[in-house]
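Problem: given the chain below (261 residues), write out its structure.
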Amino acid sequence: MTAAAARQSDIGPQLAKRAGRYREYVPSPALAPHFCCLWSHEIRTASPVAIVPDGYCDLLFADGRLFVVGPDRTAAFPPMTPSMHIIGARFAPGAGAAWLKLPLSEITGLSIPLSDLAPEKAALLEQRLSDCPDGATALSLFATLLSELAKEEAEPDPEARLIFAAADHGSGRIGGLQQRLDIGERQLRRRAHHHFGYGIKTLERIRRLQRFMALCRASETLSLAALALEAGFSDQAHMTREIGDLTTLTPAVMLAQLTTR
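Solution.
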């Protein structure tokens, strides 16, 4: 290990989007019903990389193989090395279960080769992506190939977006969602497990974490106490406990990383 790498490994986990050059791209109209975004990530650190839960499922290409990364309940720390280049596509709410033909609760917390879940899709994608000379070309081809596949896929169930939006806005929306969908609490929990890999309460906690992170990026002046209330936590202690459970990091460490330019 070089001296620079050794210094990096001593600073603790870095949030994934801070661990190198991460970029998101708006999907084409053909892909928009199925994917929130496409993305690329070039790793530039030897430190552990923390991928915190966000309520989504991703399809990614790395080291010549395609993987489905299921929704996480807590932060994942996958092995990564400096100069590693990854491209990916983030499924829209409900689209992962539809494309993979299985409930996302079956792959929660897992990274599985696409060939194990959808061998025909993997065969179409992997060989052509492996022939690309660089990451930019691979990402462009990835979008084109996914657009071809999207023609054969039904759009995700609209209820998935409603469930996700309700969790994203906090518990005040859950009761109204049950009335809108005309279902009970148990059925809502079952449908959330199918679309997102876990129940509505877990999804709500994860989206509250993401609200906290968005607020950190947007403001360098709010105190931790103010961030807690703005994000929807009952108080700063609640935020510290819940973020620690979900990420192993403290709010202060996350704030420092997210506001460093």
